[in-house]
Sequence to fold (343 residues):
Amino acid sequence: MTEDREGLIAPEMTDDRRPKKDSGPFGSSDNGHRSSVIGHRVLCLLLITMAVVVSACSPILKQMTVSSATEIFRDGQATFYREGDLRLAEQALASNLKLLEVLLQTSPDNQELLLLASQGFGAYTFAFVEEKVATHRTDPQLSSLHRERARRLYLRGRNYGLRILKLRHESFATAFDADLPAFWEALHVFQKEDVPALFWTAYGWAGSINWSRTRPEMVVELPRAVAMMHRALELDEEYFHAGPHLFFGIYYASRSPALGGEPSRAKAHLDRALDLTGGKFLLVQLLIADPYAVQIQNRALFETQLRLILDTPDDLFPEQRLMNQVAKARARLLLERIDELFL
Fold:
């Protein structure tokens, strides 16, 4: 995936991440913000209690507990993406990911939990770990520490998604280690209902490879991650706000033409994503700025897209307030670096 700077859809954030007025899904008042904090704490306490119960109860009661917790996680996912406070979101997601893993110890083949874990690790690494890489990019020691953490967490998300795909389709599990043509052929078994697992598996796989460029044994796996995302694109181009198009927008824009980049194909994917999302999902404009505008050295396009992001109302897309706040935070940092990025 992204071959330079901060990595796969790497969000860069400033230290000032507190929203000025809109503090999340409960509106702009201080009371609403406190309610959001309390709600997350209550949820975490409830799930911790469940996890403790799971360790000691009978198999039937364990499955009942896991089923209830799965429903809570599933229903709570929308609340997470509506959160406008990045620090609160980071803390809540980190806690919930560990609780998901506790539950998966009891129910290792629970595909809902596996998908939540795969998506959760991908989103967490994208939004919060890569931010630390960007923040500490001038400190070799800290940058290296966070790069390695990003590699490992993306790989963890990939592995959870891969478990779903292998559980659903034995033929894919058999062909997984075959040569690339056989791997491509095996992907035809997947249908639209498989797209979420396909997407997050490929996303995590490509992310881990991006942070493993000194490991040839991982770099050679990139064509397989790309093949999986191609299948996701064929089956549902609109999944996760045109996510497959965003993937390929980065894939083709992040490298120079001499190294296999294709800016025209990148722009086609990003334009399609913009059309599908109606301009509400600000990561699209962010990626038009970086890597696309940076790659073609179009400073005016870069600056226009980033200022558009910053001028967008916080409530433009409440269902994805979190990712739009991530886009705004990175836009601020990228504007600060404009003289570095353009010759």
Q: What stands out?
A: Residues 1-38 have pLDDT under 50 and may be disordered.
